[in-house]
What does this fold into?
Amino acid sequence: MTNNEKQTINRSVIVGDTSEIYHHRTLNILRNEGLNPFVTYEIESINSGVVCGINQIIDLLDNVLPEADRELWALQEGSEVSDNEVVLRIKARFASFGLYETSLLGTLTSCSSWATAAHDCVIAASGIPVVSFASRSVHPSVAGQVDYSAYVGGCSAVSSLIGGKLTQTTPSGTMPHSLVLIMGETVRAALAFDRHMEKNVPRVVLIDTFKDEAEEAIQVGKAMKETLRGIRIETPIERGGITPNLVDEINKKLEAEQITGCDIYVSGDMNPDDIKKFVDNESAVAGFAIDNYIARGSKINFRADIKEIEGKPIARRGRIPGSKISSRLDRIF
It folds into this structure.
């Protein structure tokens, strides 16, 4: 991905507050022993998936590695990776980056897990747009990161303002149930939305708050006429959840009332298997908005190892000494 804003590196990362204590102790011991070897250090994926967080790591290492006597090789952000594939290689004096292993692995694991989960949803959707609503399911300090990662994974849009800033896209969203509940009626909320929102904001109305979904959809369609762009359904599990049959019923009843040009969007706690049911049924879904599945992430882990010291191959037991051949790595600097 290239259309993302350069992210500010948190000072707590630079000074090592986010690093595990044994990395601090290691550097202290080596400094007192007068040891600072030139090493080759590789991070590889344990599982397959979509790699994300590369750009943040490049920015970090560009700040902490010396201007000379350094090399950084990496895969492109958003690349699909296979099991045991090298995603990043550093060649530099160990003391210049050894403190940051926690941050390197944590960034890759979190961002790649979110990106991979988003990618799973996008593949299941078979061309139907998927929007990330994952920011509502994570700590606010990482809301931008989860949305950025979901976008790298293939989501067409994200819902948070900070996610929109990081991806340089317009945040996507309709209206919450709280607006409808406070307004007291779905049609009233829809008309207020139409009156007060900028003209470039799509008129997509949430229609499952008070009444039968099809009934509310028809009422909104008749009230808003040609200004209605679409409806969003988020039927709770207590009411049976969102199903392909429900979407088909709403679509047919809208057509019977000659309400045309109204897209149907579904949202909620869905996974790729749920999405695939709508696709296989050929339901009239114009888009999916996914939260928890993306926020939970898909399993993809990484490991980091020194593979050479002063040009000599070395490795811990169980690993193969020396740099691993990888033709997909690009020289960054």
User: Anything to note?
Assistant: The chain has twelve helices and 14 strands. The mean pLDDT is 94. The radius of gyration is 24 Å.
